[in-house]
Design brief:
Elements: E1 4-5, H1 10-15, H2 20-30, E2 41-43, H3 44-52, H4 56-65, E3 67-69, E4 72-74, H5 82-86, H6 90-114, H7 121-149, H8 156-179, H9 190-198, H10 218-223, H11 230-243, E5 249-255, H12 260-272, E6 278-284, H13 292-295, E7 319-326, H14 330-339, E8 346-354, E9 373-375, H15 379-388
Parallel strand pairs: 5-6, 5-7, 7-8, 8-9
Antiparallel strand pairs: 1-9, 2-4, 3-4
Amino acid sequence: MPSIIYLRDPKELITALNLGEKGTSDLLRSMDYFDYAGGIIIPEKTASDKLRSFPRELSDVLLGLGHLHEGHIHFRSGRYYLNFSQNNNTDAIRVLIPEYIQEMSDAIERVRESNHEDDSLETRMLGLSILDHKKHYSMCILSAMFYHMLQDEVSIDIYQRAKGICIDDINNFYHYLITGNLIGQGRISDDILKEFRHSIKFPPATPPSTFKTEGEPSARKVIIREMDHPMQITLFSGEVLSEESNDPIDFIVNPLNGALEIGYALKTIFSISGKDKVRDVFLVKYSKYADAAERAISLRPFVPVQLVEETDMLLGKRLVIIDDNVFTGETLDDLRKMCMAYSSQVEIAAVERLTDKPTKRAINFDDLDFKPISKLRYIERVVEYIKTHNLEK
């Protein structure tokens, strides 16, 4: 299996978050409960022992999320990777995601009710797996809605509320991961679900990339986010704090789909650490397949018309572009050029880098303002990991 290589000692990075001795110790131990793909993994016997003490309704939900493989239960299985079971059947996904959101919302409330009975780390990680699914599904809705708005209109009120729900679910997840405390989860309304079920266009199949021989089906592009490993994001936040001055970042600019979670997660983690580090997040639906002339001018082609005036907020601000990973660096290079039209304070970063060396790089490792974790992988290797563990079933 491909491995994650931390360019600095994880303890050093977590210590930079200023969580106290117990918080640092718990977060370090939490690393053992994440598999390569970023999902919760717990030994079968440990999970079975803990689940016996859970309310029946809650243990049933958790068993439905998990997949047993070589003595461990992986809690990102077919339920999380919807595209592998549904392929490009977007109609099925439109139905399943709202159903799963409601199920996870109810389960989170049961976690809240039973949270005082067992405060062990293993119990927290079991509960965290439910929050992991909930934030994933809410991000799927937001990502699809943002893409749709590049072509057609959506009620701004519905979009802003969907974004707020997504942010709430990310906040809730990272608070529970780091502190063991649940805060308010996102509450999705019927009108948002109706919009998703009946009106939202899904992204089309993507053109071939430098490391793919054929395009990805539309459902996969909606569901898969390349950087959704919570511990990698958390360690990266420690990297930013340990190398950075106390100057705030006005906007983290995140290109969708892969980087959707990063900016909001960092904002939450820094807040838990007592740092007002990130003031806001700006989303763009960047595509390197867009016309070259468009890519050289501004961010406007990659922001929905209904939101394009928000680009004025970037003027003269400190901007940090953070992508999920860096391969050739083409995305970061293009986005940096576009952001320079708004501000002279533009920095670039990536949470991880791919160690495979292409013949040409637009951005070199030393060009990055914050150094990423190194990971031996392509997105296809994640797909293969899921398939070899039978998680698509």
